[in-house]
Amino acid sequence: MYDKNQLSAEVKKFFGFDTFKGNQEDIIMNLLNEQDTFVLMPTGGGKSLCYQLPSLMMEGTAIVISPLIALMKNQVDAMRNYSEEDGIAHFLNSSLNKQAIEQVKEDIKKGKTKLLYVAPESLTKEENIEFLKSVKISFYAVDEAHCISEWGHDFRPEYRRIRPIINEIGSRPIIALTATATPKVQSDIQKNLAMTEAKVFKSSFNRENLYYEVRPKTKDVDRDIIRFIKANEGKSGIIYCLSRKKVEELAALLQVNGIKALPYHAGMDSATRSANQDSFLLEKVDVIVATIAFGMGIDKPDVRFVIHYDIPKSLEGYYQETGRAGRDGGEGKCITFYSKKDLDKLEKFMQGKPHNEQEIGKQLLVETASYAESSICRRKQLLHYFGEEYDLDNCGNCDNCLHPKKQVEAREELCACLEVILALKERYKLDCVANVVAGNLTAEVKSFRHDELDFFGICSDSDPRFISAVIRQGIISGYIEKDIENYGLLKVTKRGRQFLDNPQSFMVVEDADYSDNDEMEMPSNGAGAIDPELFSMLKDLRKQVARRHDLPPYVIFQDPSLEAMATTYPITIDELKLIPGVGDGKAKRYGKEFVELIKRHVDENEIERPEDFRMRAMPNKSNAKIYLIQGIDRKTDLVALAASRGMDFNELLDELEAIVYSGYKINIDYYINDQMDEDIQEDIFDYFRNSETDDLQTAFDTLGLEDYKEEEIRLVRIKFLSEMGN
After folding, report:
1. Distance CA 365, CA 194 (A)
2. What domain range is 487 assigned to?
3. Cα(610)–Cα(598) distance, rounded to whole angstroms?
4. Which of 166, 335, 565, 605 has the most beta carbons within 10 angstroms of its beta carbon?
5. What's the CA gap between 689 and 671, in Å, rounded?
6. Same domain, yes or no, for 198 and 239?
7. How far apart are CA 246 and CA 263, in angstroms?
8. Residues 568-583: pLDDT tens digits?
9. Sign of the C-alpha dihedral, residues 16, 17, 23, 29?
10. What is the mean pLDDT of residues 196-224?
């Protein structure tokens, strides 16, 4: 058995960390005690340490199953940096030749290897299974575990075979890790891996800065979108459509109406698609109209709105796509247009697919429709969908909370719904139960002969739509649950049975009526600039300066910096240095024109500037960033620097990128020169100097990961941004 004092000593010994992040310590303790463990943690939360440290402490070799072949080498290199023995970590996948595979097996046999990364395809090979049978295994780690589930957003059939292979090799504790999973996906993962008793560790899905709104999709939807974009002129936005044809049509319509927009979908030739993406990143256009193919590799922090022209196929897809707004923590408006006709189209698309796929697809659509039609807090519904409780009834940042409808008493209706669910033996879905309660004689009701039952029409004075709202809010309140193993059959919870025994007041709001064509006016979440005219002028100047220096606009100044300028009116270089994201180098290099523009605007409009000019400057950033900057100033090895802060190397690169984007200049030449050939450095630097985008995925695709490592490209990009932008 291990205790936490021992764990603290070991993490200091192996990685040099003084503290753990979030749930890391409890997760590691659970695994060390040989208990199955399920980890739901966002990217950057430190998932890898949760299996790396136990692998070093436990006897035997840990098997890490991951689909990301491209990242395996980075993980292995990072582990080797913590040890004097290269054999401490290996990977086994299709990229290795026969000789390399033999070397891996030899190190494992000798007991050198504590971590073995395996692609699921490699794990299924008979020769590998036979070899691993002879190995003492400490535990199995299943990374990107959502790939197991047909209900997940990245289903991979080969992941379904992991448990039988583990049984064949030899059963040991399992840790499953993922950055996104609904309760259904989580259940699927645990069931498939036979780890239903695993202890579960979850982090939050809440994005407080995002504003959620659902609008009726009427014949005037195009006009409403144009009106909204013009009301948010100059802001970056993405519009998602389901079909390529609609993408092309809408992009053309926006262009005709004077909006700088371009299309993006998988049917375009790659050169045009890349050029359109770069134009969006470089702010040559404000809006991209796209299918869901757009956004996966996008690292644009200042997307201010995401519009769904068509309702998404699932709430998980919706959550991912809306999540591309406001990544810098600033304003992010998420507008969805909803029509029942769109749902009908999506259902038709499913025809011809296997029955199981159709049932899953239909249930996902039901969840999306429930979200769109409901009048309760959008944030509360989304978090509930991902298995997270949100204590507030009003988040203050969605359409339903900002414009709440009148609540009505529904105690009797909830009791009726609970009684009908039980009378129907908990074997029917929401629509069927609502129709029986309201006495709505549908074809389904007739086919099951429910109209002949005594309780048919028990609330005949109520509209089925209102009864549906009562059931949905009963689910959110914990009186009813959906059986996720049986496509959404309704069950009465223990709390629901207690409610039947002792009914209390139950206030609900009716679901939204989409017959009205409301004007599309967006409430502000307070993230915008106080002086919109100056903000617009500053953005125009930024584009001019960027063109002159042949740099993307956000390398000059990011939106939050311009917003701060348009709020506090700095008119000297020293005052400009106090703006968040404006370091000494940026202020000296680009600041003169900006403060001159602000001073002219202040004088011409007789603006009285705030007397107390107080803002955070880069030197007042977090202690972690100060520590990293000081370490680089002392020319500390970057791997050691990451280890000292409890980071893996990719997390360190994330922090360094944030520092240079904030306007602070750092010099990592000492590390780059030690790790990389001069020719490689020059090739990558020249790429960024001549490229119109600094997007990493574009760089990976263009340069090719066969010739360059991901970390090499990222390091030179940091050098480029620091030298050219700051």
Report:
1. 28
2. 408-508
3. 14
4. 565
5. 21
6. no
7. 10
8. 888 988 888 878 778 7
9. positive
10. 88
